[in-house]
Amino acid sequence: MEDGKREVYMEEELQWINKVLSGNKQVYAQIINKYKDPLYATILRMTRNQQDAADLVQEAFIKVYHQLGKFDGKGSFSSWIYRVAINHCMDEFRKKRHKTIENEMR
């Protein structure tokens, strides 16, 4: 993507974020619609389970919503969304592994 187009795109994303932070839930629905399928594909590759991937995507979007004010605009919004979602997945994998180890020790 050319630098000029990238700047316009990033400015548009910042406008979306500001609208959501101002209470516009319809704009957040647009964000979800834009990113849900590629995010699902990424998480499905990580989990190899459709239901787990769907659940994790939904949870990730809730987390993104609550952390939206922390987006600093230094990088792309899409990269930030992916990072929040992947970090959430890794946290869930660690929790699951920890529970498995605890159950094996009983």
Automatic annotation (TrEMBL):
Domain RNA polymerase sigma-70 region: 32-97
Xref: Gene3D superfamilies: 1.10.1740.10
Swiss-Prot/TrEMBL keywords: Sigma factor, Transcription, Transcription regulation
Species this chain originates from: Mesobacillus foraminis
Name this polypeptide is given: RNA polymerase sigma factor (Sigma-70 family)
GO MF entries: sigma factor activity
InterPro entries assigned to the protein according to its UniProt record, in alphabetical order: RNA_pol_sigma-70-like, RNA_pol_sigma-70_dom, RNA_pol_sigma70_r2, RNA_pol_sigma_r2
One Pfam family, short name: Sigma70_r2
Biological process terms in GO annotation: DNA-templated transcription initiation
